[in-house]
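ok, trying the design again with the full structure, not the truncated one.
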């Protein structure tokens, strides 16, 4: 019996509960045919029918190999690992969003300095503020202000 349990533990491992009433288990099944090894996740229901009259023999087999406490512990570890993975994924996504935002800001600034009136402006302070802008809105607002200043300067020069 012990040998059969070891064989079944090798075949079905890492069982976790998928629901609170402990009627559904996810387990990793390992199988080997010749030199080909295969691993797949199985979702195993306790019941084979909606009326809950026919028990699933695979569910019973897994429950005979693993105690409820072992599955509880495995589920706890699985959930903790999942939380950590979700946290890492959220951090990675946040970093990607920041990189994208900065790339867009850089492109915006390049576009701004390709505007002839901005590129040819001698107002180093405004141009410096545009370069230091932390957002597209700030860069655009400074650009508009500089363009208005350049237009006023141009009109003043035409009037004299």
């Amino acid at each position: 019996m012990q040998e059969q349990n070891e064989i079944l533990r090798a075949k079905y491992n890492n069982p976790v509960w998928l629901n609170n009433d402990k009627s559904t288990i996810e387990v990793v099944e390992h199988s080997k045919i010749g030199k080909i090894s295969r691993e797949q996740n199985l979702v195993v229901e306790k019941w084979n029918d909606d009326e809950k009259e026919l028990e699933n023999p695979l569910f019973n087999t897994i429950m005979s190999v693993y105690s409820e406490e072992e599955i509880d512990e495995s589920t706890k570890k699985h959930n903790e690992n999942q939380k950590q993975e979700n946290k890492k994924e959220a951090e990675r996504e946040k970093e990607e969003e920041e990189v994208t935002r900065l790339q867009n800001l850089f492109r915006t600034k390049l576009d701004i300095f390709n505007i002839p009136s901005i590129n040819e402006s001698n107002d180093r302070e405004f141009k410096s503020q545009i370069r230091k802008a932390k957002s597209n809105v700030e860069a655009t607002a400074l650009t508009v202000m500089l363009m208005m200043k350049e237009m006023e300067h141009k009109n003043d020069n035409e009037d004299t």
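Keeping the full-length input from now on. The helical segments are 2-11, 57-65, 68-113, 116-119, 124-132, 136-159.
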